[in-house]
Automatic annotation (TrEMBL):
Signal peptide: none annotated. Its EC number is 4.2.1.24. One of its GO terms (biological process) is protoporphyrinogen IX biosynthetic process. The keyword Repressor does not apply. GO terms for cellular component: cytosol. This is Delta-aminolevulinic acid dehydratase. It catalyses: 2 5-aminolevulinate = porphobilinogen + 2 H2O + H(+). InterPro entries: ALAD, ALAD_AS, Aldolase_TIM. Belongs to the ALAD family. The active site is at residues 206, 260. It comes from the Bacteria. Homooctamer. Pathway: Porphyrin-containing compound metabolism; protoporphyrin-IX biosynthesis; coproporphyrinogen-III from 5-aminolevulinate: step 1/4. The lineage of its organism: Bacteria, Pseudomonadati, Pseudomonadota, Alphaproteobacteria, Hyphomicrobiales.
Length: 338
């Protein structure tokens, strides 16, 4: 028999990587990671009023919704199989003050929306953020005293906010303000109020990032912010510090961990999952979403392909799920719906 060994066989030792890539069926058979609808959490923006669907210019395809319209949208998300939503309010400027006091109103926008959605769509999970930035007149996540975001006083208020959100029907509290000790304090507060079954998804590593701009436009804090958030968010340069932050949240009782932003911090996603083994999530934030949308609208990339590729890469990086403004769009693709 004629020897058909090729020079390439001698170089590779007969190990040819392309054998497993040769056909669609082999590629599917050896695929390591898969994106499913179960991996998607949909963030939505709320506004007061009724019948409102208000497009956000910096986030093409994303709208601010009044509660009635949010209920309709969440019903669609549930029908697609999306397991959970995360809500963010854009409240009236007249209700914002130095301490974010309206966050403590039991009937504020976020709590009204939680109650309405839970009543209309009981099978979907509701994740709420206890941070104060939607309620402060200065745009910071905590209480501002002089030039300082005060830690302990902010934590005390955030705990009260978290309990009220749980009273309204929130399933998971996801505090994003990055104050020291907040996770343990919230856990104690929830338990004392009888909310042992309400989980905490910690913004374990929230970085001081330039990717948040469109989100701040969505909740109208971009023009309010005094200074920056470097004194409480993590520097993008610091991976070890991020791990220490997350370790404290684990010790204090976090049920799940989140990395925010997502794509620029895939290494942190992997490190958290490997180190702690807790359910780990990434937030594909507004700037990431808008980059993809803008490039696609200009014809520079295949928007749908890049959207699905980025969502899948979070799975490869160890994430159990992704908060993404693409959630509904991606869920329709996964379900084969137009």
């Amino acid at each position: 028999m004629q020897d058909k060994t090729h020079l390439v066989d001698e170089i590779t030792g007969h190990r040819r990587m392309r054998r497993n890539r040769k056909a669609d069926w082999t590629r599917r058979m050896v695929q390591e990671n898969r994106l499913t609808v179960d991996d998607l959490i949909w963030p939505i923006f709320l506004v007061p009023g009724s019948g409102i669907v208000d497009p956000i210019p910096a986030m093409p395809g994303v709208n601010r919704l009044s509660i009635d319209k949010a209920v309709e949208a969440v019903k669609e998300a549930a029908d697609l199989g999306i397991p959970a939503i995360a809500t963010f309010p854009n409240i009236e400027m007249t209700l914002r003050d130095e301490t974010g006091s309206h966050s403590l109103a039991a009937d504020n926008l976020i709590n009204q929306a939680t109650a309405a959605i839970k009543k209309a769509v009981p099978g979907i999970g509701i994740i709420t953020d206890a941070a104060l930035d939607p309620f402060t007149s200065h745009g910071h996540d905590g209480i501002l005293r002089g030039d300082e975001i005060v830690n302990d006083e902010t934590v005390e208020q955030v705990v009260r906010v978290a309990v009220m959100q749980a009273d309204a029907g929130a399933d998971i509290i996801s505090p994003s303000e990055m104050m020291d000790g907040r996770i343990g304090a919230i856990r104690r507060g929830l338990d004392a109020a009888g909310h042992q079954n309400v989980g905490i998804m910690s913004y374990a590593t929230k970085f001081s990032s330039g990717f948040y701009g469109p989100y701040r436009e969505a909740i109208c804090t971009d023009g309010l912010l005094k200074g920056d958030k470097n004194s409480y968010y993590i520097s993008p340069a610091n991976g070890t510090e991020a791990m220490r932050d997350a370790a404290l949240d684990v010790e204090e009782g976090a049920d799940m961990l989140m990395v925010k932003p997502g794509l620029a911090y895939l290494d942190i996603c992997w490190r958290l999952k490997e180190a702690y083994g807790l359910p780990t999530f990434a937030y594909q934030v507004s700037g990431e979403y808008t980059q993809i949308k803008a490039a696609a609208m200009n014809g520079w990339i295949d928007g749908e392909r890049v959207m699905m590729e980025t969502l899948l890469c979070f799975k490869r990086a160890g994430c159990d799920g992704i908060l993404s403004y693409f959630a509904v769009e991606a869920a329709k693709i996964l379900a084969g719906r137009p």
